[in-house]
């Protein structure tokens, strides 16, 4: 039970109790007890219950659904910036099961803009790999990779031999990316993206553009990734402050 003589506010004590209860007994998608049930369980006021539940909502542990109740929220997958990793590697490091729901591989003629950005030679083509990536059957990302064809001969015939594209590049072509430049922006999902990701049209998504380079600053890969905003987030570690002398 709660300690009503403690200096810790009751709603915070209750929020801690609910966190423990959820972590031990509930899984993502489960509905937790109603406010009236929690009120009786812990002998507290409805206001205390609401403040405690609101704290869990702010923490991202649960979400309220109008007219239905409060449900345990699927935790967002965090991609740590600062090193070159594949989506597959990030997911596996977090113990998330992975799968590819669809794959389409073609050789394409690059656009004028792509030729300029990738510093392509006249007549040079690119391999386009489009995949719908998922975890536990839930679509999470639409991933489109463009590779310079001349660096990956026979790719169309081989197909994607590994779940991780970067693993295949390293093992089959001895290609290791030296550095990359990544841009992340938030926007609304298009109708086709929403259909593929099984989310409402105009839902928020994260749109990532990555340019990857080989040694010698040679452009090799262009990637576009559209990811569900409700299931994914990016984390950047910042170190110190840069002071400017006046």
Description:
- The chain is α+β, with helices and mostly antiparallel strands.
- It has two domains: 10-72, Arc Repressor Mutant, subunit A; 77-235, Chorismate lyase, CATH 3.40.1410.10.
- Helix content is 29%, strand content 32%.
- The chain contains eight helices and ten strands.
- The protein has helices at residues 10-25, 35-42, 46-59, 87-93, 112-118, 155-158, 165-173, 191-197, and strands at 62-65, 69-72, 77-80, 99-108, 126-135, 138-148, 179-188, 204-214, 218-228, 232-235.
- The strands form three sheets. The chain has a six-stranded antiparallel sheet with strand order 4-5-6-9-8-7.
- Strand 1 (62-65) and strand 2 (69-72) form a beta hairpin.
- Helix 1 (10-25) packs across helix 3 and helix 2 packs across helix 3 (46-59).
- The longest helix has 16 residues, at 10-25.
- The relative contact order is 0.12.
């Amino acid at each position: 039970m709660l300690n009503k003589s403690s200096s810790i506010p009751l709603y915070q004590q209750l929020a801690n109790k609910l966190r423990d209860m959820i972590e031990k007994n509930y899984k993502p998608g489960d509905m937790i007890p109603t406010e009236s049930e929690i009120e009786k369980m812990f002998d507290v006021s409805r206001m205390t219950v609401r403040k405690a539940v609101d704290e869990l909502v702010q923490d991202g542990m649960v979400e309220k659904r109008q007219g239905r109740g409060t449900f345990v929220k699927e935790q967002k997958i965090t991609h740590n910036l600062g090193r070159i990793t594949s989506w597959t590697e990030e997911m596996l490091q977090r113990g998330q099961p992975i799968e590819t729901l669809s794959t389409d591989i073609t050789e394409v003629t690059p656009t004028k803009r792509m030729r300029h950005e990738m510093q392509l030679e006249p007549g040079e083509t690119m391999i386009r790999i489009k995949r719908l990536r998922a975890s536990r059957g839930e679509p999470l990302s639409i991933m489109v990779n463009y590779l310079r064809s001349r660096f990956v001969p026979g790719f169309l015939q081989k197909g994607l031999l590994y779940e991780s594209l970067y693993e295949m590049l390293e093992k089959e072509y001895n290609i290791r990316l030296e550095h990359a430049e990544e841009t992340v922006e938030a926007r609304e999902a298009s109708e086709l993206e929403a259909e593929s990701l099984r989310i409402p049209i105009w839902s928020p998504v994260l749109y990532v553009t990555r340019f990857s380079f080989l040694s010698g600053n040679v452009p090799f890969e262009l990637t576009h990734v559209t990811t569900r905003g409700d299931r994914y987030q990016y984390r950047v570690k910042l170190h110190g402050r840069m002071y400017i002398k006046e």
